[in-house]
Design a protein that fits this description.
mainly beta; Neuraminidase; 2 domains; five-stranded mixed sheet; four-stranded antiparallel sheet
Length: about 325
Amino acid sequence: MLHSFSFRQAGTTALPRFIRVAALAVGLTSLLPGCVQEDGTIPNPFTPAKITVAEPRVHPEGIRYDELNQRYLVSSRTQGRIGAVKDDGSYRTFADDPRLISTIGLNLDAGRQRLLAAVSDGGGNTSRSTPATLRQVAGLAIFNANNGSLQSYVNLGALRPGQQHFANDIAIDLQGNAYVTDSFAPVIYKVDLQGNASVFLENAQLSGGTGFGLNGIVFHPGGFLLVAKSNDGALFKVPVDNPEAFTRVTVSQSLVGADGLLILTPETLLVVSGGQQTVFRVNSTDSWTTARATGSFATGAVGPTTITRRSLTDAYVLYPYTATSPFFEIVKVKFM
Protein backbone atom coordinates (compact mmCIF):
# COMPACT_ATOMS: atom_id res chain seq x y z
CA MET A 1 0.00 0.00 0.00
CA LEU A 2 1.24 3.49 -0.87
CA HIS A 3 1.33 6.12 1.84
CA SER A 4 1.42 9.85 1.32
CA PHE A 5 4.36 11.64 2.86
CA SER A 6 4.04 14.75 4.95
CA PHE A 7 6.78 16.81 6.55
CA ARG A 8 4.78 16.88 9.79
CA GLN A 9 4.80 13.07 9.99
CA ALA A 10 8.50 12.99 9.29
CA GLY A 11 9.30 15.23 12.21
CA THR A 12 10.66 18.74 12.55
CA THR A 13 14.11 17.86 11.15
CA ALA A 14 12.87 16.44 7.86
CA LEU A 15 12.22 19.73 6.14
CA PRO A 16 15.62 21.31 6.81
CA ARG A 17 17.42 18.11 5.79
CA PHE A 18 15.35 17.87 2.62
CA ILE A 19 16.16 21.47 1.79
CA ARG A 20 19.88 20.89 2.38
CA VAL A 21 19.95 17.84 0.11
CA ALA A 22 17.92 19.61 -2.56
CA ALA A 23 20.19 22.64 -2.42
CA LEU A 24 23.24 20.45 -2.81
CA ALA A 25 21.68 18.69 -5.80
CA VAL A 26 20.82 22.01 -7.42
CA GLY A 27 24.32 23.28 -6.78
CA LEU A 28 25.91 20.26 -8.39
CA THR A 29 23.50 20.35 -11.30
CA SER A 30 24.40 23.95 -11.98
CA LEU A 31 27.98 22.85 -12.51
CA LEU A 32 27.19 20.14 -15.02
CA PRO A 33 26.07 21.84 -18.26
CA GLY A 34 29.47 23.36 -18.90
CA CYS A 35 31.16 20.01 -18.18
CA VAL A 36 29.10 17.76 -20.43
CA GLN A 37 31.36 16.38 -23.15
CA GLU A 38 30.38 15.87 -26.77
CA ASP A 39 29.80 12.16 -26.18
CA GLY A 40 27.27 13.00 -23.45
CA THR A 41 29.41 11.95 -20.49
CA ILE A 42 30.08 14.10 -17.42
CA PRO A 43 33.50 13.87 -15.71
CA ASN A 44 33.35 12.96 -12.03
CA PRO A 45 34.88 15.76 -9.91
CA PHE A 46 35.45 13.38 -7.00
CA THR A 47 38.00 11.11 -8.71
CA PRO A 48 41.69 12.12 -8.64
CA ALA A 49 43.06 14.17 -11.50
CA LYS A 50 46.43 12.40 -11.32
CA ILE A 51 48.02 9.54 -9.42
CA THR A 52 51.80 9.59 -9.05
CA VAL A 53 53.31 6.19 -8.27
CA ALA A 54 56.79 6.34 -6.73
CA GLU A 55 57.79 2.83 -7.81
CA PRO A 56 61.09 2.93 -9.76
CA ARG A 57 61.85 1.30 -13.10
CA VAL A 58 58.43 -0.26 -13.66
CA HIS A 59 57.88 1.24 -17.12
CA PRO A 60 54.26 0.04 -17.37
CA GLU A 61 52.61 -0.46 -20.75
CA GLY A 62 49.11 -1.74 -19.91
CA ILE A 63 46.50 -0.63 -17.40
CA ARG A 64 43.08 -1.76 -16.24
CA TYR A 65 40.88 -0.37 -13.47
CA ASP A 66 39.57 -3.03 -11.09
CA GLU A 67 36.31 -1.52 -9.86
CA LEU A 68 35.54 -4.31 -7.38
CA ASN A 69 38.81 -3.78 -5.49
CA GLN A 70 39.16 -0.05 -6.29
CA ARG A 71 42.64 -0.33 -7.75
CA TYR A 72 44.53 -0.07 -11.02
CA LEU A 73 46.38 -3.08 -12.38
CA VAL A 74 49.49 -2.22 -14.38
CA SER A 75 52.00 -4.24 -16.38
CA SER A 76 55.78 -3.82 -16.55
CA ARG A 77 58.06 -3.95 -19.59
CA THR A 78 61.20 -3.87 -17.48
CA GLN A 79 60.30 -6.31 -14.70
CA GLY A 80 57.47 -8.46 -16.02
CA ARG A 81 55.46 -8.42 -12.82
CA ILE A 82 51.95 -7.02 -12.60
CA GLY A 83 51.29 -4.38 -9.96
CA ALA A 84 48.26 -3.05 -8.12
CA VAL A 85 47.98 0.71 -7.56
CA LYS A 86 45.66 2.58 -5.20
CA ASP A 87 44.50 6.19 -5.45
CA ASP A 88 47.08 7.21 -2.84
CA GLY A 89 49.87 6.09 -5.19
CA SER A 90 50.77 2.97 -3.23
CA TYR A 91 52.05 0.05 -5.31
CA ARG A 92 52.33 -3.65 -4.56
CA THR A 93 53.13 -6.69 -6.68
CA PHE A 94 49.89 -8.43 -7.65
CA ALA A 95 51.20 -11.27 -9.85
CA ASP A 96 54.54 -12.58 -11.07
CA ASP A 97 56.07 -15.62 -12.75
CA PRO A 98 59.48 -16.31 -14.35
CA ARG A 99 57.81 -16.56 -17.77
CA LEU A 100 56.70 -12.93 -17.55
CA ILE A 101 59.65 -11.39 -19.35
CA SER A 102 57.76 -8.21 -20.25
CA THR A 103 54.05 -7.75 -19.68
CA ILE A 104 52.41 -5.42 -22.17
CA GLY A 105 48.63 -5.11 -22.62
CA LEU A 106 46.18 -6.16 -19.90
CA ASN A 107 42.49 -7.03 -19.96
CA LEU A 108 40.37 -7.61 -16.88
CA ASP A 109 37.57 -10.12 -17.46
CA ALA A 110 35.84 -9.30 -14.19
CA GLY A 111 32.77 -11.46 -14.77
CA ARG A 112 34.96 -14.55 -15.12
CA GLN A 113 37.42 -13.37 -12.48
CA ARG A 114 40.35 -13.42 -14.93
CA LEU A 115 43.18 -11.01 -15.60
CA LEU A 116 44.82 -11.53 -18.99
CA ALA A 117 48.29 -10.25 -19.83
CA ALA A 118 50.16 -10.16 -23.14
CA VAL A 119 53.74 -11.37 -22.64
CA SER A 120 56.67 -10.40 -24.89
CA ASP A 121 60.40 -9.79 -24.93
CA GLY A 122 61.40 -6.52 -26.52
CA GLY A 123 64.68 -6.46 -24.61
CA GLY A 124 63.51 -4.16 -21.82
CA ASN A 125 63.85 -6.71 -19.02
CA THR A 126 67.58 -7.25 -18.55
CA SER A 127 67.13 -9.93 -15.88
CA ARG A 128 64.75 -12.24 -17.78
CA SER A 129 65.48 -11.55 -21.45
CA THR A 130 67.79 -13.99 -23.25
CA PRO A 131 69.09 -14.20 -26.84
CA ALA A 132 66.70 -17.11 -27.38
CA THR A 133 63.63 -15.12 -26.30
CA LEU A 134 64.46 -11.65 -27.65
CA ARG A 135 61.76 -10.65 -30.19
CA GLN A 136 60.55 -14.27 -30.19
CA VAL A 137 57.91 -14.25 -27.45
CA ALA A 138 54.17 -13.94 -27.90
CA GLY A 139 52.42 -15.30 -24.83
CA LEU A 140 49.11 -14.95 -23.03
CA ALA A 141 49.18 -15.28 -19.26
CA ILE A 142 45.86 -15.76 -17.47
CA PHE A 143 45.62 -15.01 -13.74
CA ASN A 144 43.00 -15.29 -11.05
CA ALA A 145 41.80 -11.69 -10.77
CA ASN A 146 41.27 -12.00 -7.02
CA ASN A 147 44.59 -13.39 -5.78
CA GLY A 148 46.97 -13.10 -8.75
CA SER A 149 47.66 -16.83 -9.08
CA LEU A 150 48.65 -17.95 -12.59
CA GLN A 151 45.96 -20.17 -14.09
CA SER A 152 47.50 -20.82 -17.50
CA TYR A 153 50.11 -19.65 -19.97
CA VAL A 154 49.54 -19.96 -23.73
CA ASN A 155 52.48 -19.89 -26.17
CA LEU A 156 51.05 -18.02 -29.14
CA GLY A 157 54.35 -17.63 -30.99
CA ALA A 158 54.46 -21.40 -31.49
CA LEU A 159 51.61 -21.01 -33.98
CA ARG A 160 53.99 -19.19 -36.34
CA PRO A 161 57.51 -20.48 -35.64
CA GLY A 162 60.44 -18.84 -37.34
CA GLN A 163 58.91 -15.34 -37.19
CA GLN A 164 59.62 -12.48 -34.85
CA HIS A 165 56.90 -11.85 -32.27
CA PHE A 166 55.66 -9.25 -29.81
CA ALA A 167 52.29 -9.92 -28.17
CA ASN A 168 50.84 -6.51 -27.49
CA ASP A 169 47.18 -6.05 -26.57
CA ILE A 170 44.09 -8.11 -25.75
CA ALA A 171 40.35 -7.87 -26.45
CA ILE A 172 37.69 -10.19 -25.02
CA ASP A 173 34.35 -10.91 -26.69
CA LEU A 174 31.03 -11.78 -25.03
CA GLN A 175 31.82 -15.51 -25.06
CA GLY A 176 35.15 -15.01 -23.32
CA ASN A 177 37.34 -15.53 -26.37
CA ALA A 178 40.56 -13.50 -26.20
CA TYR A 179 42.08 -11.80 -29.24
CA VAL A 180 45.77 -10.85 -29.08
CA THR A 181 47.67 -8.59 -31.47
CA ASP A 182 51.25 -9.29 -32.57
CA SER A 183 53.26 -6.16 -33.38
CA PHE A 184 56.06 -7.97 -35.22
CA ALA A 185 53.97 -10.50 -37.17
CA PRO A 186 50.81 -9.59 -39.18
CA VAL A 187 48.68 -11.80 -36.95
CA ILE A 188 45.78 -11.63 -34.52
CA TYR A 189 45.55 -14.72 -32.31
CA LYS A 190 42.43 -16.18 -30.71
CA VAL A 191 42.34 -18.10 -27.42
CA ASP A 192 39.06 -19.65 -26.27
CA LEU A 193 37.96 -20.26 -22.69
CA GLN A 194 39.49 -23.74 -22.74
CA GLY A 195 42.90 -22.30 -23.66
CA ASN A 196 42.88 -23.46 -27.29
CA ALA A 197 44.92 -21.05 -29.41
CA SER A 198 44.59 -20.38 -33.13
CA VAL A 199 45.48 -17.80 -35.74
CA PHE A 200 42.33 -15.68 -36.00
CA LEU A 201 43.55 -13.42 -38.81
CA GLU A 202 46.78 -13.21 -40.79
CA ASN A 203 47.18 -10.69 -43.58
CA ALA A 204 49.98 -8.65 -45.11
CA GLN A 205 47.94 -5.47 -44.59
CA LEU A 206 48.45 -5.95 -40.85
CA SER A 207 52.23 -5.85 -41.14
CA GLY A 208 54.25 -2.99 -39.70
CA GLY A 209 57.13 -3.70 -42.05
CA THR A 210 60.36 -3.19 -40.16
CA GLY A 211 58.55 -1.16 -37.50
CA PHE A 212 55.77 -1.65 -34.98
CA GLY A 213 52.56 -2.95 -36.56
CA LEU A 214 49.40 -4.07 -34.79
CA ASN A 215 48.86 -2.59 -31.36
CA GLY A 216 45.62 -1.71 -29.53
CA ILE A 217 42.53 -3.89 -29.92
CA VAL A 218 38.99 -3.70 -28.47
CA PHE A 219 35.79 -5.68 -28.88
CA HIS A 220 32.76 -3.67 -30.03
CA PRO A 221 29.29 -4.82 -28.88
CA GLY A 222 28.25 -4.79 -32.54
CA GLY A 223 30.20 -8.03 -32.99
CA PHE A 224 33.50 -6.78 -34.38
CA LEU A 225 36.97 -5.80 -33.29
CA LEU A 226 38.58 -2.40 -33.75
CA VAL A 227 42.34 -2.76 -34.19
CA ALA A 228 45.00 -0.04 -34.49
CA LYS A 229 48.30 -0.24 -36.37
CA SER A 230 51.01 2.02 -34.98
CA ASN A 231 53.33 2.57 -37.91
CA ASP A 232 50.75 4.17 -40.23
CA GLY A 233 47.82 4.85 -37.90
CA ALA A 234 45.45 2.46 -39.68
CA LEU A 235 42.26 1.50 -37.83
CA PHE A 236 40.67 -1.79 -38.88
CA LYS A 237 37.17 -3.17 -38.34
CA VAL A 238 37.28 -6.97 -38.07
CA PRO A 239 34.02 -9.00 -37.80
CA VAL A 240 34.53 -11.80 -35.26
CA ASP A 241 32.40 -14.21 -37.32
CA ASN A 242 34.22 -13.44 -40.61
CA PRO A 243 37.65 -11.94 -39.94
CA GLU A 244 38.77 -12.16 -43.57
CA ALA A 245 36.13 -9.53 -44.38
CA PHE A 246 38.00 -6.89 -42.36
CA THR A 247 37.96 -3.30 -43.62
CA ARG A 248 39.95 -0.16 -42.92
CA VAL A 249 38.01 2.59 -41.17
CA THR A 250 38.24 5.95 -42.95
CA VAL A 251 39.31 8.39 -40.22
CA SER A 252 39.63 12.16 -40.61
CA GLN A 253 42.40 12.34 -37.99
CA SER A 254 45.91 10.91 -38.37
CA LEU A 255 46.35 8.16 -35.78
CA VAL A 256 50.02 7.45 -36.44
CA GLY A 257 51.60 6.09 -33.28
CA ALA A 258 48.28 4.59 -32.11
CA ASP A 259 48.63 2.43 -29.02
CA GLY A 260 45.85 1.71 -26.51
CA LEU A 261 42.15 1.87 -27.43
CA LEU A 262 39.04 2.26 -25.28
CA ILE A 263 35.39 2.09 -26.37
CA LEU A 264 33.66 4.76 -24.32
CA THR A 265 30.27 4.32 -26.04
CA PRO A 266 29.34 2.28 -29.15
CA GLU A 267 29.90 5.46 -31.19
CA THR A 268 32.96 6.76 -29.32
CA LEU A 269 36.50 5.40 -29.34
CA LEU A 270 39.46 6.81 -27.42
CA VAL A 271 42.82 6.34 -29.15
CA VAL A 272 46.15 6.88 -27.38
CA SER A 273 48.95 8.00 -29.69
CA GLY A 274 52.30 7.87 -27.97
CA GLY A 275 54.03 9.29 -31.02
CA GLN A 276 51.72 12.29 -31.12
CA GLN A 277 51.60 12.61 -27.31
CA THR A 278 47.82 12.86 -27.52
CA VAL A 279 44.66 10.98 -26.65
CA PHE A 280 42.14 11.38 -29.48
CA ARG A 281 38.38 11.05 -29.14
CA VAL A 282 36.99 9.58 -32.35
CA ASN A 283 33.30 9.19 -33.23
CA SER A 284 31.42 7.17 -35.84
CA THR A 285 27.79 7.38 -36.94
CA ASP A 286 27.90 4.55 -39.50
CA SER A 287 29.04 1.54 -37.45
CA TRP A 288 32.73 2.33 -37.95
CA THR A 289 32.87 2.54 -41.69
CA THR A 290 34.07 6.11 -41.22
CA ALA A 291 34.99 8.17 -38.18
CA ARG A 292 36.02 11.70 -37.25
CA ALA A 293 37.94 13.24 -34.39
CA THR A 294 35.76 15.14 -31.91
CA GLY A 295 38.27 15.99 -29.20
CA SER A 296 41.85 15.62 -28.03
CA PHE A 297 43.86 15.59 -24.82
CA ALA A 298 47.52 16.59 -25.08
CA THR A 299 49.74 14.72 -22.63
CA GLY A 300 52.78 16.97 -22.90
CA ALA A 301 56.33 15.71 -23.22
CA VAL A 302 55.53 12.09 -22.43
CA GLY A 303 54.69 9.07 -24.58
CA PRO A 304 51.36 7.76 -23.20
CA THR A 305 50.57 4.10 -23.80
CA THR A 306 47.18 2.72 -22.81
CA ILE A 307 43.93 3.90 -21.33
CA THR A 308 41.28 2.47 -19.02
CA ARG A 309 37.72 3.29 -18.04
CA ARG A 310 37.22 4.00 -14.36
CA SER A 311 33.49 4.62 -14.50
CA LEU A 312 30.84 5.57 -17.02
CA THR A 313 32.28 9.06 -16.99
CA ASP A 314 36.03 8.81 -16.42
CA ALA A 315 38.97 7.50 -18.43
CA TYR A 316 42.59 7.41 -17.25
CA VAL A 317 45.70 7.28 -19.42
CA LEU A 318 49.06 5.80 -18.44
CA TYR A 319 52.28 7.84 -18.46
CA PRO A 320 55.12 5.27 -18.22
CA TYR A 321 58.00 7.75 -18.63
CA THR A 322 61.33 5.95 -19.19
CA ALA A 323 62.63 2.49 -18.33
CA THR A 324 64.78 3.99 -15.55
CA SER A 325 62.23 6.49 -14.24
CA PRO A 326 61.71 6.58 -10.43
CA PHE A 327 57.94 6.91 -10.90
CA PHE A 328 55.02 6.71 -13.35
CA GLU A 329 51.64 8.44 -13.46
CA ILE A 330 47.99 7.68 -14.12
CA VAL A 331 46.15 10.75 -15.40
CA LYS A 332 42.47 11.58 -15.90
CA VAL A 333 41.69 12.53 -19.50
CA LYS A 334 40.02 15.88 -20.11
CA PHE A 335 39.12 16.59 -23.71
CA MET A 336 39.35 19.97 -25.41
